[in-house]
Amino acid sequence: MTVLEGIKQNNFVIVGRVGMDLFTAPGGATETSDSFTADMGGSSANIAAGIVKLGGKAALVTSVSDDAVGRFCTNKLAHYGVDSTYVKPIGGEARNSLAVYESRVEDHQSVIYRNHAADFEMTVEDVEAVDYASYGALVTAGTVFAAEPSRSAAFRAFELARAAGLPIIFDVDYRPYSWPSPQVAEEVLSKAGALSDVIVGNDEEFGFMAGGIDKGLDKARELAASSASIVVYKMGEHGAITFADGQELRTGIYPVTALKPTGAGDSFMAGLLASIADGHSIKDAVLRGSACAAIVVAKPGCAPAMPFPADLEAFLADHPGATQVT
Questions:
Q1: 302 lies in some domain
Q2: With 80 as the cut, is the pLDDT of residue 324 above it?
Q3: How far is CA 324 from CA 235, 255, 261, 267, 272, in A?
Q4: Residue 326 pLDDT greater than 70, yes or no
Q5: Residue 106 resides in a domain
Q6: What residue numbers bound the domain in which 30 lies?
Q7: What's the mean pLDDT when you consider all of the chain?
Q8: pLDDT of the residue at 74
Q9: Half-sphere exposure (CA, 13 Å, Cβ side) for 96?
Q10: Range list of H helices, 118-257
Q11: Residue 211 — pLDDT band, cuts 50, 70, 90?
Q12: C-alpha angle 53/56/57, rounded to 5°?
């Protein structure tokens, strides 16, 4: 099937982590807060939740710790309607990732606990158990490649998805703290990018893969010309440049008063894919993804802040035009 045909099935298998988020009340600092809200986190899980909230289907493939926190994460997947058939509890010392972050922009602090993360214990056997033919596309985020055996498992998932005719959608999502070295990350993420049909990343991430931020745009353009059908080069407040069908589409953002700087990328990916699935043009899908990102940064949490269709349409009605790229 073509890339668009796969996405339009609106049924995604998503490989990567689910974790627990603890976040403060709006404006609160971690070190002076007495209470936190707990919810689901992890890029892949957030993308899955965002897709489901917008009317699609998503199944997550990962490992969780066989303890109360792992069960919290699995219960939250069910709460958001994400299929957890391929979520495997594991024993031993591995633990689910934990993110403690603040609902504020000024002096924002995020503390990420990823020591011996349970999701890195996902194996080749785990991804070989997936029925890829039941889905329209595979989605993953870069952190899944940061350690073994998860790295080999993710590349095996790419092979199996390709054999089943599924397009591969890759959010670069470079998190330095997860990797043994920048050199390993550059090599592995570049390999994943070369195998993908849709690539989404920011200017720093493409620059990282290219060996310098000034080379990032050329890297995105090169990937679009050689292997990927759609490449989205995000530039923060300056919008995005999307390479598709031989065109370079420039889009802006929807300015909002941000409550926090986290969750935008996951929501963008969910909005982009859900909008393509709903029949919107690539340009409109990018804009709708940008609207989803704006909605999430203006609310507490990540998965709970992801919009439903009515939320997205109401936001677009109140924000009729995105800012222009400068």
A1: yes
A2: no
A3: 12, 11, 21, 21, 19
A4: no
A5: yes
A6: 3-318
A7: 95
A8: 98
A9: 27
A10: 124-128, 150-163, 182-194, 203-210, 216-226
A11: confident
A12: 105
